[in-house]
Amino acid sequence: MNLPEIQAALRDAGHECWLFYDHHHRDPIAYRVLGLPESMMVTRRWFYLIPAQGEPVKLVHRIESHHLDPLPGSKLEYSAWQELWQNLEAMLKPYRRITMQYSPNNQIPYISLVDAGMLELVRSFGSGKEIVSSANLVARFEATLTEAQIASHFKAGEAIDKITAAFFQEVGRRARNGGTHEFEMQQWIMEAFAREGLETCDPPNVSVNAHSGDPHYEPTSASSAPIKQGDFVLLDIWAKRKEPGSVYYDITWTGVVGTPNDKQREVFDVVRGARDTGIRAVQQAFANKQKIHGWEVDKAVRGFIASKGWGQYFIHRTGHSITGDIHGNGANLDNLETKDDREILPNTCFSVEPGIYLPEFGVRSEVNMMVRQGCGEVTGRIQNELVAI
Fold first, then answer.
1. Would the CA dihedral through 365, 371, 375, 378 be positive or negative?
2. Dihedrals φ, ψ of 241, to 5°?
3. Which residue of 199, 335, 347, 377 could cross-link 298, Cys pair, CB 3.0 to 4.6 Å?
4. What pLDDT sits at residue 1?
5. Average predicted confidence (pLDDT) for the chain
6. What is the DSSP string of 199-229?
7. DSSP secondary structure string for all residues of 169-192
8. Looking at residue 324, what is its pLDDT?
């Protein structure tokens, strides 16, 4: 844990203090931010209060009194619940606004980890007590990337862009010479990952025709559709380098074995336009040094698709945070499933991936963006027309 950095972040954001609380590993964010071992046995509640200025304070049960010893600060102990309440109230007495892993109305569920009873208890310590969300603080410590991590993302992207181009060539070759199927091509990609030193949490998604209209379809050896002349093919592919601290690269491309029809071209053009609307929204905000939040990008993208008459077929958020996890803990581009009011922070990475999903086929066009102070860029190749496989 870097205490000066956390306290500086609290002051920058205008927060008075950050209260971490856990019981039985319900809050994995706390362990990561504080640098505590996630293997630690936790059978009793513990608390750790970091003020914007001054010394942190620990509150631990006497039978697990050493749990927070690696962290700086003074220590209080409890056995009885009345003693816990008394000590916690004393810890929080100097503060009116307490930051916790909380999201109003559970709007950002990835952050909303503190149970309602604990929130009630903290509020009971004074009529003026207010609990505020740690969402942007968590993003700062969990989603902002180092220069080495950023470089790893670009390295993964270079390899995956090459594999993607080769994939469509291989699909075409096999489709015209005896045929292939979704699962076979998925395994072909996994072999390519191994050769390129890449790893993934889950295999890529190779979807044909109606399967491409299911955003989270997964081919298996038991249920895998053939790929043949005239078929529509969607590839959703993600991986990272087999190196500590590496960051994922995650893209989606679509194509047709043969010549796309007019409807496929029309839908692709709308999705491409929506994707580019999202890219421009981010780039313009960063170029103008204006704050932009995840929900605002989704609103712009969703509005574009709706204006073209396809709004009901865009059934998921526009994008997600990307870190060493495929779905990171920074701002998602979302004003559908949640209203993600987290700010898009410099040195963060995320996907922009609108889609239109129909019964016969679905189109998604996914790129990754990296934002820095004053600029935002797409980190790899951009698909501008359907692949003629």
1. negative
2. -65, 150
3. 335
4. 84
5. 96
6. E-SS--EEEEGGGGGSTT----SSS--EE-T
7. HHHHHHHTTT-EEHHHHHHHHHHH
8. 96
Location of structure tokens 């049960």: 61
List residues bridging with 352 in a β-sheet: 367
For residue 18, give the amino acid letter. Answer: W
Q: What's the whole-number mean pLDDT along residues 358-364?
A: 97
- Please list, in sequence order, all residues whose beta carbon lies within 8 angstroms of the beta carbon of residue 384, skipping any fewer than 6 positions away: 272
Tell me the domain boundaries of the chain: 3-142, 147-388
**Which 8-state DSSP code applies to residue 343?**
B
Question: With b meaning 16 or more CB within 10 Å and e meaning fewer, what string describes 136-172?
Answer: bbbbbbbbbbeeebbebbebbbebbbebbeebbebbb
- State which amino acid sits at residue 368: N
pLDDT per position as a tens digit, 259-272: 999 999 999 999 99
Query: 308 near 328, Cβ under 8 Å?
Result: no
Q: At what angle do helices 135-142 and 3-13 cross, to 10 degrees?
A: 140
Domain 3-142 has CATH 3.30.420.40: no
**Are domains 3-142 and 147-388 of this chain identical in fold?**
no
Residues 6+ apart with CB under 8 A from 162: none
Superfamily classification of domain 147-388 = Creatinase/methionine aminopeptidase superfamily (3.90.230.10)
| Radius of gyration of the chain measured on its C-alpha atoms | 24
Return the bridge partners of 351, or none: 368
For 204-211, what is the mean pLDDT? Answer: 97
CA distances from 74 to 17, 78, 152 (A): 15, 14, 39
Q: What number is the average pLDDT over the span 294-323?
A: 98
Instruction: Check pLDDT > 90 for residue 88.
Output: yes
